[in-house]
Design brief:
Blueprint (H helix, E strand, L loop, with lengths): L6 E7 L6 H6 L8 E6 L6 H8 L3 E4 L5 H15 L4 E4 L11 H9 L5 E5 L5 H4 L4 H18 L11 E4 H6 L11 H11 L5 E4 L13 H22 L6 H4 L5
Parallel strand pairs: 1-2, 1-4, 2-3, 5-7
Antiparallel strand pairs: 4-6, 5-6
């Protein structure tokens, strides 16, 4: 608990057996109540390792549902467990769990309802091994998104995110993509619902075991991000309504 708020860490996993243990052991359990591991049909022993580590809440997809589909299972389970603060932490150890205390505190102290750990604030991205083409694409996409969405985030593409229960209940994330663009679509829903997103500086590590999409998937993701941003702009300008921002949540 953090000041009476239940804290749940969700781990969206795919072939994370080599890095799951080191990630899990750095989680600050003095303030974290539950951990949810969602194994998206891994080909290794991710689920079995999770059980051996003592993770009580493990969901295994028998068929790969994609990164967005994995997150849907994560958030649904976290809300079912009564989570007030839900943090997505990748179990590939690309993001350090040592930032969890700071991330959780920003929501727990009711300063913000959502917090992103940014690889771009400071100079850690390239030092941590981010490929140059990804860094350049990140900067171009983020600039374009800020213009179209009227925001000032340093990056929209981090996988290290925290949401309050209020945010997750306000977002109709079930209708979003099951692919990587889910991350940006849910940001559009967060902003559309009137919430702000805080950012903290986050070092990052790129290494062989860390998950990363290839160039062709990156290009597809980039076009999906631009499509999301333009649709958001047109929706807010009253030019064309966007179903992802207008469809009521199923009861």
């Amino acid at each position: 608990m953090y000041k009476g708020k239940k804290v749940i860490i969700v781990l969206p996993a795919y072939n994370a057996a080599q890095t799951l243990e080191i990630t899990y052991k750095e989680i600050p359990f003095e303030i974290v109540d539950e951990v949810v591991l969602v194994d998206d049909a891994s080909k290794d022993n991710t689920s079995e390792l999770g059980k051996s580590l003592g993770i009580k809440h493990i969901i295994r997809h028998e068929q790969n549902r994609g990164y967005g589909g994995n997150q849907k299972s994560c958030y649904n389970k976290a809300l079912e467990l009564g989570g007030d603060i839900v943090v997505m932490l990748h179990p590939d150890y690309q993001y350090t769990p040592k930032l969890l205390v700071s991330i959780i505190a920003l929501i727990g102290e009711e300063v913000y309802e959502s917090v992103f750990a940014s690889r771009i604030l400071g100079n850690g991205a390239l030092r941590g091994g981010m490929p140059m083409y990804k860094f350049i694409a990140n900067r171009i996409l983020t600039f374009t998104q800020n213009v179209l969405m009227g925001q000032k985030l340093s990056e929209y593409h981090t996988g290290y995110r925290a949401y309050s229960r209020k945010v997750l209940e306000a977002c109709n994330y079930e209708i979003l993509s099951d692919d990587f663009v889910f991350d940006n679509q849910i940001v559009a829903q967060v902003f559309n619902a009137g919430f702000e997103i805080a950012e903290i500086t986050c070092p990052t590590k790129y290494f062989e075991e860390a998950s990363s999409i290839n160039f062709s998937r990156s290009v597809k993701y980039g076009f999906g991000v631009l499509g999301t941003s333009f649709r958001y702009f047109f929706h807010k300008a009253g030019i064309a309504k966007w179903s992802l921002l207008t469809t009521p949540k199923a009861k």
